Amino acid sequence: MTNALALLKEALGDAVTTDAARLASAQVDESGHRSDAPPLAVVEARSIEDVQATMRIASQTRTPVVTRGAGTGLAGGAIGSAGEIVLSTMAMDQVLEINEADLLAVVQPGILNGRLNEILGERGLWFAPDPASKAISSVGGNIATNAGGLLCAKYGVTRDAVLGLKVVLADGRLLTLGHRSVKGVTGFDLTALMVGSEGLLGVIVEATVRIRRAVEGAVATIASFYPGVRDAAAASAAITAAGLQPAIMELIDQPTLNAIDAYVGSSLSTRGTAHLAVQFDGPAAADEARRALEIITELGGDAELTTDRAEAEALLAARRAAHPSLAAMGTTLIEDVSVPRTRLPDMFDAIAEVERKYGLTIPTLAHAGDGNLHPNFIFEGADVPDEIWEAAGEVFQAALRLGGTLTGEHGIGLLKKRWLGHELGADQLELQREIKRVFDPDGILNPGKVF
Amino acid sequence: MTNALALLKEALGDAVTTDAARLASAQVDESGHRSDAPPLAVVEARSIEDVQATMRIASQTRTPVVTRGAGTGLAGGAIGSAGEIVLSTMAMDQVLEINEADLLAVVQPGILNGRLNEILGERGLWFAPDPASKAISSVGGNIATNAGGLLCAKYGVTRDAVLGLKVVLADGRLLTLGHRSVKGVTGFDLTALMVGSEGLLGVIVEATVRIRRAVEGAVATIASFYPGVRDAAAASAAITAAGLQPAIMELIDQPTLNAIDAYVGSSLSTRGTAHLAVQFDGPAAADEARRALEIITELGGDAELTTDRAEAEALLAARRAAHPSLAAMGTTLIEDVSVPRTRLPDMFDAIAEVERKYGLTIPTLAHAGDGNLHPNFIFEGADVPDEIWEAAGEVFQAALRLGGTLTGEHGIGLLKKRWLGHELGADQLELQREIKRVFDPDGILNPGKVF
Question: Ranges for the FAD-binding PCMH-type domain (chains A, B) (predicted)?
Answer without folding.
Answer: 35-214
